[in-house]
Amino acid sequence: MTQEIDDKFANLQRDIQPMPDFIREALAKNGVMDDYLARPAYQQNDYLSWITRAKQEETQQKRLNQMINELKKGGVYMKMKHPLSQKPTSN
Question: What does pTM read for this prediction?
Answer without folding.
Answer: 0.81
